[in-house]
Amino acid sequence: MDTDTIKIVRMLAENVDFFYGSTHALKNINLNIFKNKVTAIIGPSGCGKSTFIRLLNRMNDLIPRSRLAGNIMLDGENINEPNTDVVDIRRRVGMVFQKPNPFPKSIFQNVSYGMEVNGIRDKNVITEKVIESLKKAALWNEVMNRLDESALCLSGGQQQRLCIARCLAVEPEVLLFDEPCASLDPVSTKKIEELILGLKKEYTIVIVTHNMQQAGRVSDYTAFMYLGELIEFGHTEKLFTVPKDKRTEDYITGKFG
Amino acid sequence: MNKKIVQGLGFAVLYLCLAATLFFLGTIIYFILVKGIKIINWGFLTEVPRRAMTEGGIAPAIIGTFYLTLGSIIFSLPLGLACAIYLCEYSPTGYIVNIIRLSINNLAGVPSVVFGLFGLAVFVKYFGFGVSILSGSLTLGILILPGIISAANEALLAVPQSLREASFALGATRWQTIKKVVLPSAMSGILTGVILGIGRAAGETAPILFTAATFYTRGFPKSPMSEVMALPYHIYALMTEGTHPDKQTAIAYGCSLILLLLVLSVSGLAIYLRQKQRGHAYGH
């Protein structure tokens, strides 16, 4: 496990509160996300972990009647400042969703899409980047001969790796995974986990999961959330072996969940 | 009663309903076909009416219906699509949007002759377009607008939110997401709306009664400001005016058959396009 002492804060949440209408979904969350580390967020369903991760690339902007208080910083900038470009934030902070959601386009077009919407026109640059991204997402060998086929013909696990490739193609700094293996079989899950471990050399990764073994396998840091609060945050190994809070202990030992 | 028997009965009722529907459709087509086929020949399709509509062809009416339908789609598709995109993708949900939706649904229930009077008052008189293809197209366009809006709206709502999120998460703007992800996915549903619109616009009589149609022209329309003959109105005229009912009735059935074939072939084309588009999306 990671014993590195160099910790650079890439993203941080400061006194974050979030409301859906009158529902207080997140309560005073303070959390550091370190560069080139994997941070796992665990907790029972409805604890706010997905809500939290979706604040990190402002996906919750799309939800009507929601309200945020507190600061979320990316490399020292507040991502919710009025003059911040939300489109730029979302390019820098990529997201892989719970269910694979490839576009009903070809495999190639799925990966090139992000570059096109970000104004890259050079065909050679795009082609190179598509290949590079598919290789990084460990999908290249399976699709190299059928880049023009529809992405919907791929299996669920392949679709999810395609979604990862699609993210990587726009050169994000942070990758958010919102329960990326929730709809996948164990073999596909293992591939995604290996991928995540490989990707942390280049990216800062946040993964929401309600599979504690998965958090243990892939993450350097773990945050435990419960009923909208951040109960405990620390090195994954420590949190799982010597939890400080009774509720963390109960959750990881399976007393509730 | 045994639940399998109940199920059997249920299916029997459904089959009966299906059979009844097909029966009516089949009868209408058969009836029009038998009565209309006799008069149809090349001349009927390509010539102008002669001798006070008792001889000759219906070419100007076919052309007129084509122009009116085309015009109404050119007018209502962009407007309806823009309206649906605004309602579905941009407007915040709430009171005012609900009122707008309600108004659109109510517009769909307005009788077509009222649209005709509206067209007469506004396009023909107020804007001074006169009785013309332009006035008729605009009136028909307004008539089919609610249908286009609701079909497009349904099609947009059916696009999974997850696709929009995927696009936003890659740094696409709202407009890029609509243009590159949402609209292509919704295209087949929008096409369905257009098909229905074409069918309706081609077949309506009342809206063009005062705004575009004329009883009889010697030649073909020369500009969008010309008045035109149109198939549905021509049928009406043949059956109500003139001095040779027997000859005119035969021509009216011929007209009906052409109108039916026209609408069916347009629908067929659109269904073909839709299937092709859908097949492409799923890579078959």
List keywords for this structure.
heterodimer, A: 257 residues, Rossmann fold, 10 helices, 35% helix, 26% strand, globular, B: mainly alpha, MetI-like fold, two-stranded antiparallel sheet
Explain the overall architecture.
The complex is a heterodimer of chains A (257) and B (284). Chain A has 257 residues and is of the alpha/beta class. Chain A has one domain: P-loop containing nucleotide triphosphate hydrolases (Rossmann fold, 3-Layer(aba) Sandwich), CATH 3.40.50.300. In chain A, 35% of the residues lie in helices and 26% in strands. In chain A, strand 7 (174-178), helix 7 (186-199) and strand 8 form a beta-alpha-beta unit. The model of chain A has no long low-confidence stretch (mean pLDDT 91). Chain B has one domain (37-281): MetI-like (MetI-like fold, Orthogonal Bundle). A two-stranded antiparallel ribbon of chain B has the order 1-2. The longest helix of chain B is centred in the last third of the chain and has 37 residues, at 245-281. In chain B, a hairpin with a 4-residue loop joins strand 1 (49-50) and strand 2 (55-56). The radius of gyration of chain B is 23 Å and the shape is globular. Chain B has 284 residues and is mostly helical. Classes of the chains: A alpha/beta (257), B mainly alpha (284). Chains A and B meet through helix 2, helix 3 and helix 6 of A and helix 7 and helix 8 of B.
Structure in a nutshell:
The complex is a heterodimer of chains A (257) and B (284). Chain A is 35% helix and 26% strand.
Query: How many E-type strands of chain B?
Result: 2
Q: Characterize the largest beta sheet of chain B: strand count, sense, and whether it forms a barrel.
A: 2 strands, antiparallel
- Total beta strands of chain A: 10
Order of strands side by side in the largest beta sheet of chain B? 1-2
Based on secondary structure, the structural category of chain B is: mainly alpha
The succession of helices and strands of chain B, N to C, reads: HHEEHHHHHHHHH
Describe the main β-sheet of chain A briefly: 6 strands, mixed
Radius of gyration from the alpha-carbon trace of chain B, in angstroms: 23 Å
Helix fraction of chain A?
A: 25-40%
CA-based shape of chain A: globular
In the CATH hierarchy, what is the class of chain B? Mainly Alpha
The DSSP helix count of chain B reads: 11
Which CATH architecture of chain A is right? Answer: 3-Layer(aba) Sandwich
| Annotated CATH architecture of chain B | Orthogonal Bundle
Count of folded domains of chain A: 1
Into which percentage range does the β-strand content of chain A fall?
Answer: 25-35%
